[in-house]
Specification:
It is a single chain. Helices cover 45% and strands 14% of the residues. It folds into two domains: 18-220 and 499-523, no CATH class; 224-491, Carbon-nitrogen hydrolase (Nitrilase/N-carbamoyl-D-aminoacid amidohydrolase, 4-Layer Sandwich). The chain is an alpha/beta fold. It has 18 helices and 15 strands. The longest helix is centred in the N-terminal third of the chain and has 28 residues, at 99-126. It is a multi-pass membrane protein. Residues 236-487 form the CN hydrolase domain. It is found in: Cell membrane.
Length: 524
């Protein structure tokens, strides 16, 4: 009788066996892939809960570290191969890469970026307690690492799915997008535990959701209007096809297009042209720039334009002109015309698009074909002064650097509103430009500032301090978006503290989870 009781107890305590590996890998890959539908333009945010919940449920059973790693890797590959497939357009359509090679490159990108989730799963399986707090903490840790490790690729964060869901995104002005991701992942994992009849975790998730919802209902105004009249702005969308944008023979035509679109906008407070709308260095377009500045001054208009900027002042004048040395040049934004001053140089450059990683290695091979023709943009300082426009200061971000929460936060300090210029023509009709726009909305919400966004092919938009799109222009049309923007002052908690609060919280949770696992192992 005693032996039968012991055997029964052993059976009850036996962990359920994991699913066959192939089925688990397929499930993990599909769970990662489906997350795309939670982001713009689809916006089915419940999948941002379901997707990580599936991964959590796959990792909960006992398994080897190797098995956990490849399950996490499969999830990450699905996430990036599908969610980041917009890169295919740039690689295939505009880089003359064969279809088969472009697909291989996308797969390699997914394999590399999938390592973040692979190591998440490995650590979750081998080093910390298997519960929602450690899972949510590890998830946010890998998202944060993507903002700086190997220059960073901060895309496809869970928190972006809730940009316009104020019941959760109300946490963004307090602790940024990572706080939104943390609560969403904690909720996802807790729901799995609820199904496993371990309801204690769901209580904490509900409490955090209640706090977030209360903030939404209370609607605290972290920033306030400056008290000056709203500014009238005109955002010019030239819709120049990427395959001809940088052709020398099309440069003059590009300038004519932007000049013609702007002809009716002189007299507005601010006119904005997108990234590299002048497709030549400033010293090569002095005559055209002078004409635009004269028109801006005559009509009392501020003119802001994206332009490649060659810094001759930094160039060593004693260098022999016959050498291959070249002045540093930047992807920049200039503020010109009435009541305007300033030059912003892009800080976060796109690897292989704007600079070649380890470019100095090519110097070892001076005879390598084409190596001497490869020149990279230089990085702008992270201590630049904001643009000055009509008595206001503007925090600026160029293209993909707006995806970096901390970079935008620093640029937003002591400014009245925010500006980003971009050229998303590289990504055609894919979801990439709309995901990019969603990030701008989150940055506006985090910093409590209006954001104006001028692009070449779209999406050109005006976004308020709550992250809501006030106006937007249709994509792939040659048009002008007119609107009014409000200057605001004050700092959100996120602007003051940055990511430190959420990073401290996840560090404490991981430490406690690690110590708890060790203590349990010792008792066992």
């Amino acid at each position: 009788m005693r032996l039968s009781t012991i055997n029964l107890q052993k059976r009850l305590n036996t962990k359920s066996k994991p699913l066959p590996l192939l089925l688990m890998l397929t499930t993990a890959w599909l769970a990662g892939a489906v997350f795309l539908l939670a982001l713009a333009p689809y916006g089915f945010w419940p999948l941002a809960i379901v997707s990580p919940a599936i991964l959590y449920s796959l990792l909960v059973p006992q398994m080897s570290g190797r098995r956990a790693f490849i399950i996490g890797e499969a999830y990450g590959m699905g996430l990036w191969c599908v969610g980041g497939f917009w890169l295919y357009t740039a690689i295939h359509d505009y880089s003359d890469t064969p279809t088969w090679l472009a697909l291989i490159l996308i797969a390699l990108m997914g394999l590399g970026m999938g390592l973040f989730h692979g190591f998440l799963a490995l650590i979750f399986n081998r080093m910390v307690g298997k519960q929602p707090f450690s899972f949510a903490a590890l998830w946010v840790l890998q998202e944060w690492l993507k903002t700086w490790l190997f220059t960073g690729f901060p895309w496809l964060f869970i928190g972006y799915a809730f940009t316009e869901e104020y019941w959760l995104s109300s946490l963004a002005p307090i602790a940024g997008v990572f706080a939104v991701s943390f609560v969403a992942i904690l909720l996802a994992a807790s729901l799995v535990e609820l199904l496993r009849r371990r309801s204690s975790y769901i209580v904490v998730s509900v409490m955090l959701l209640a706090i977030s919802t209360s903030l939404w209902l209370i609607n605290p105004q972290w920033t306030k209007p400056k008290g000056t009249p709203d500014l009238s702005v005109s955002l010019i969308q030239g819709n120049i096809s990427q395959d001809i944008k940088w052709l020398t023979q099309y440069q003059v035509e590009t300038l004519k297009i932007y000049a013609k679109l702007t002809r009716t906008e002189w007299g507005r407070d601010v006119v904005v042209w997108p990234e590299s709308s002048i497709p030549m260095f400033q010293d090569e377009a002095t005559g055209f720039i002078s004409e635009m500045v004269e028109m801006a001054n005559t009509t009392n208009t501020t003119w802001i334009t994206g332009i490649p900027y060659k810094d001759k002042a930094a160039f060593n004048a004693s260098t022999d002109a016959n050498t291959d040395n070249y002045p540093p040049f930047y992807n920049s934004v200039m503020a010109l015309g009435a009541e305007a001053d300033g030059l912003y140089k892009k800080q976060r450059l796109v690897p292989f698009g704007e600079y070649i990683p380890f470019e100095g290695v090519l110097d070892v091979f001076p005879n390598l074909a084409g190596s001497q023709d490869i020149k990279s943009y230089s990085r702008g300082s992270d201590q630049q002064s904001p643009l000055q426009v009509r008595g206001h200061t503007i925090g600026t971000a160029i293209c993909y650097e707006v995806a970096y929460p901390d970079t935008t936060r620093k640029n937003a300090m002591n400014t009245d509103f925010l500006l980003t210029v971009s050229n998303d023509a590289w990504f055609g009709t894919s979801a990439g430009p709309l995901q990019h726009l969603q990030m701008v909305q989150m940055r506006a919400l985090e910093n409590g500032r209006w954001f104006i966004r001028a692009t070449n092919t779209g999406v050109t938009a005006i976004i308020n301090h709550k992250g809501r799109i006030v106006k937007r222009a249709p994509q792939f049309e040659r048009t002008v978006l007119r609107g009014e923007i409000q200057a605001r002052v004050g700092n959100t908690p996120f602007m003051i503290m940055g990511n430190y609060p959420i990073l401290i919280i996840i560090a404490l949770l991981l430490l406690l989870s690690y110590l708890g696992r060790r203590s349990k192992s010792t008792r066992d």
